[in-house]
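User: Can you predict the 3D structure for this chain?
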Amino acid sequence: MADTDFFALSRPDSLTYLGVYRAVYGTRPTTGTYSGATSLLDGTGMGGVSGLIAGGVAAIDGATLARTVLANIGVSAGTLGGSTPSVSYSLLETALGVFFSAFPNDRAQVIVNVARILPNLEGDGVFGNAARAFNATLASDIGVVGVPDYVPTTPYY
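Assistant: Here is the predicted structure, written as structure tokens:
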């Protein structure tokens, strides 16, 4: 579990939505967009949100989408740790690009999975720095758009 427990709220999907939005668009949603998404989450859960995402990323080639998602969540060779961060980044970027190209109907779900997994990697030797930075960004997003019922269990970084 991450040092910053973002899932200590009654609606973890609302936080996942913020991460997914940032991964796709590189910014936080407006308060109005966020409010509309929470209504969709109430009705359909992340499945409905994934459907919207799928339409927005369908025309992007796999390699470009992989680079975009990774850049938007702050994962780069410069933010990764370990003994060979550039190799780790290259392998991840290539794997995502191949997956996005081979399975275009699953792109949205992969982006959702990335937004759910990265926050929990703060203690990881390779992804920890990127995870902490992403969590700090999400903390800022929470402060702007407001996530109901969210009470952090530990301080933000």
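The chain has one domain: 12-145. Helices lie at 12-25, 31-44, 46-57, 62-72, 85-102, 107-117, 128-145.
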